[in-house]
Amino acid sequence: MTDMGRGLDDDTLAAAFRAAVADTPEPGFGHSDVLAGSHRAARRHRMLVTGGIAAAVIVLAGGVTTGVVLGQDRGSVTSAASAPAQDSAGSGLAREAAPVPPALGGGCVNQQDPGLRSLVDAALPALSSATEAPTTMICRPGGGREVHLDVTDGALTGLFSVVDTPAGEQGPTDAALGWVQATEPTRSGGTVTVTSRASSDSGGVPYSDQVEALAKALAPLL
Amino acid sequence: MDAAAEQAFAEYFRARRDAVRRTAYLLCGDWHRADDHAQAAFVALHRHWSRIRDPQALDAWVRRTLVRAVVDESRRPWRRERFVERLPESAAAGPDVATRTTLVEALRSVPPRQRAVLVLRYLEGLDVAGAAEALGCSPGTVKSQTAHGLAALRATLGDSLDDLRAAG
Questions:
Q1: H helix runs in chain B, sequence order
Q2: A133-192: pLDDT as tens digits
Q3: Where do the record's region annotations for Disordered lie (chain A) (predicted)?
Q4: Which of A20, A220, B38, B148 could link B100 by a cystine bridge, Cβ 3.0 to 4.6 Å?
């Protein structure tokens, strides 16, 4: 397997790889830089959560107010907030629900977006108990947001990702083996891409039959 | 985090920083970007430190975070790498330096996930199962990507394989 056709074995390759990094330069960051970065990320996360809650309160208050006003005028009209319409994916999410404001217009953000996570959990409640997958900060000059979850679907395990890409930006394009992926155009003109990847010891791709339905359910909300 | 946890993180950071930087360097081919990726991985680790209960899982967690970040970055349109058919001329330096430069440059011609498989297996010394865990794919995928990655490396290195063999 590892012979390169000319007798280059594993040990030789390993020695060559180690030699390639033998002259490691002085590090460009230290422990204090890591702590500072962690604290900045924590502050940003708190701001995002606070913003998401505020947006949800505003949307909810607007829906209730609309219901009350219309109810006075015409007797009985149910607001979107109190009785969400069923969409084609059966998610229970309203197609007319106000889109959650983008997390950030651009720049470097944590890949786990709380606002998008709340939409994913609502559309596919089975994911609400899933833990966040390890991620780092990501720089997105054009904006957009992502959620990456370590998921378990019965005996199947893997990584479940949702990426909301704004109009004019290119979304994920991978379609490698062991993946199931669906992409839908969003209401704001961008795309939402849902991807489920099987982990190494999984017998299949978790929630593979939910990938397309989730993309269709999220698209009108983004 | 409490003081004991901060101390444990600081010790882990000191012990593993350069190893993580080296892996990042072979994954991306640039020491400045390698430092950025390594720092981001340690920042993420610090934020999740209290949630990782198994100390044995720390290396795997950092490795997985790092690989995912580098591979994901390579997919971004504004940072996407360009694969080259021919290597640039090696710097006029001693044979050891030239050999190292050749390997690093040749790795840049290998697609990101195949490159990640090669780095995990030959620099980090992971077996097929370990590499599969780090990449979130099946062992069969690791085996096939190893074969494809080595083929790509061989196609780019050509006659430089003899120098690589001598350096090994």
A1: 3-28, 31-48, 58-75, 95-108, 112-122, 128-135, 139-157, 161-167
A2: 877 666 666 778 888 888 888 878 888 899 998 887 777 665 455 678 888 999 989 999
A3: 186-205
A4: A20
Is there a contact between A194 and A218 (Cβ–Cβ < 8 Å)?
yes
Chain A residues 6-45 with CB within 8 Å of chain B:
6-8, 10-25, 27-29, 31, 33-35, 37-38, 41-42
Range of the domain at B67: 1-80
Q: B95 and B155 in one domain?
A: yes
Domain identity same for B18 and B55: yes
In sequence order, the 6+-apart residues with CB closer than 8 A to the CB of B50 are B1, B5
Q: Whole-angstrom Cα distance, residue B69 to residue B40? A: 9
Of B26, B48, B80, which marks where a domain is finished?
Answer: B80
Report the candidate in B79, B99, B83, B82 with the shortest Cα–Cα distance to residue B91: B99
Domain match, B7 and B70 both: yes
Structural domain count of chain B: 2
Looking at the fold, whether B1 and B74 belong to one and the same domain comes out as yes
Q: Could you tell me how many residues make up chain B?
A: 168
For chain B, how big is the Rg over CA atoms in Å? 17
**All residues at 6 or more sequence positions from B41 whose CB lies less than 8 Å from its CB, including other chains:** A136, B20, B24, B62, B65, B66, B69
Whether the predicted interface score ipTM is above 0.85: no
**Dihedral pair phi/psi, residue A132, rounded to 5°:** -70, 135
- Answer whether A1 sits within 8 Å of B146, measured CB to CB: yes
Contact A37 B40 (CB under 8 A): yes
Token pair, residue A144, equals 């957009």
Cβ within 8 Å, pair B18-A138: no
Segment A55-111, tens digit of pLDDT: 556 655 655 544 444 444 433 332 333 333 333 333 333 333 344 444 444 566 667
CATH number assigned to the domain comprising residue B61:
1.10.1740
> What's the pTM?
0.56
What's at A186, amino acid-wise? T
Q: Would B86 be classed as within a structural domain? A: no
Do B141 and A178 lie within an 8 Å CB cutoff? yes
- Angle (CA) B81-B82-B84 rounded to 5° is 135
